[in-house]
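Human: We require from you a standard protein entry with sequence in single-letter code and fold as tokens, and nothing else.

Assistant:
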Amino acid sequence: MSSISKRLGSRELRASMREVGRSLAKEHGDELTKKSRNERLLAALDLLKKLGGAVALHETDGKKFIRGKSCPLAAITADYPDACLIVEALLTEIIGVPVKEHCTHGQPPSCCFEVS
């Protein structure tokens, strides 16, 4: 990540992280296009678990959040929080609605993605 972030500006780095997420979604999400939003949401949770995340769906004040305590990107998110955009884009593509990253990037890191 260090060499990539040095070569790219902030805007390009963020765009690259999102492109990685979209590419991952294409590898895993083609069979989900005819599924309901809820089925796609559950499939996204399953995929994050397969990638090493310990995630669960929570609802607060009518908003849905995917929260996690074990992040597959934890080794880099403290220094490179834009890496969370990979998962944000992955979730947006698979679920089919906008998803916004609200992760905590300290120690320990904590994932939080708001599903629109």
